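S2.1 Query sequence (aldehyde dehydrogenase (NAD(+)))
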Amino acid sequence: MAPKLDIETYPGNIINNEFVPTPNTRHSINPATGSPLFKVPVTRAEDLDAAVEAARKAFKSWSTTPFSERAKLLLEYTDAIEANRDELENLLTKEQGKPLSLSHTEMDFALSWLRAFATMKIEDEVLQEDEEKIIYSTHPPIGVCAGIVPWNWPILLGVGKLGPALITGNTFIMKPSPFTPYCDLKLGELAKGIFPPGVVQVLSGDDNLGPWITEHPGIDKVAFTGSIATGKLVAASCAKTLKRCVLELGGNDAAIVCGDVDIDKCLPKITTLSFLNSGQICMLTKRIYIHESIYDEFRNKMVEFTKNNIKTGAGTEEGVVVGPVQNKMQFDKVKDIYAQIEKQNWKTALAGQAEESRNGYFITPAIIDNPPEDSQVVAEEPFGPIVPLLKWTDEDDVIDRANALRTGLGASVWSKDLKRAERMARRLEAGSVWVNSHFDVDPRVPFGGHKESGIGMEWGIEGLKHYTNSRSLWVWKKIFE
Ligand code: NAD
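Output structure tokens follow.
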């Protein structure tokens, strides 16, 4: 029987399958109420050293544990999470702010991701074979991997690193964002009863902890998800020890809507994917290019749909799509973009509101009507519920505009003419491109960014290979006398 979690108690970091308290503690807040949540550890450098030592020791046996045994434990772990899913989903809404329905979806994803990883084995490949020799491509694990997790999807992006690291034979140290440490610490607590000591550890801390991890000589790989600015710091820091790093960074995805679409069918999805999680997802539809022949109708219907269906409120309220923005720093950033509406004379199709009118960080959606291409709301990822609509006429021109930025995470084309849409999709510079959809993800499908949206891929066999070294193994059959 999986243990039942007490979500109000955080006795310490999870190191070597023990709770290890720290002399100092901190807490984050519930963004819907502003009230403080529970006390969590503030990791010291020596705590990280202890975790790395335990992880290095555990690596010796975990890396040689058969795939079937690693998969079995990963599935047991998934069951333990599932047994606590209600508590974890409530906790997620409390710490992150997202609607309970979205916490439920995040948990569904997390469970199915882990179960899929447990089936994904990287097989050796025979590159050449003749009478004299056989040459294999093999993929041994790298060693101690660290996962640095952002605050927008703490559960999914935490286990989305943990699963691939473990199934490929690495040991794993997770560092949650200081804004959302609670669910990730509980994931560590559950892991402690299932995996051997040192295989999964979770450390929570302040702003010092990330840089300590990227600099640590005992850590072999960092899997990082977060902003582009921080990603560059992580890459520079990892370079000092030539640590492997995979970076999943910000995006500013274009959705190109062609003139032949059935507006009523595609609009609900495009609109919802502009505002989901209050715009705080790396690959939402953040720039919507609409063919001029349907621009006015699309805009008017999008405004109506948003007014009627995209409700703002606490994540615990029924029917809410836009919960509070997760933290004060992000709230101030989004407020600043809303302040630009007047300063820059942007036309609003829907004027949202970003004011501290309640205790939490609530912002209602805004739709900007055909602003200049170089305006901040088009050129930068707002990470809030505000989206620009832009007009296009010429196919080459709209593709150039979609590809013009330094980001390249996701992009989509919407049309009834699948041939044309696919032709356009193949010209888009992004790690995930969809035709008549956006935001589809799957544990078996690699996910990552082009240009400044990232380096390397997560998920899929390709993503799992990033948790391994590539080893060419030459076996000569002739025995020397
Ligand atoms: P962030 O970059 O501020 O923080 C991410 C993580 O890095 C946190 O755990 C933080 O504590 C840690 N960190 C901060 N400074 C560090 C440093 N110098 N060294 C090492 N670690 C450090 O990002 P965020 O604000 O938590 O997340 C929002 C950003 O993440 C957005 O830009 C979003 O688009 C991006 N994101 C990308 C993906 C993706 O898969 N591509 C997914 C989700 C979010």
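The longest strand covers residues 386-392. Residues 148-152, 175, 177-178, 210-211, 214, 225-227, 230, 233-234, 248-251, 282, 381, 383, 409, 449, 454 surround nicotinamide-adenine-dinucleotide (CB under 6 Å).
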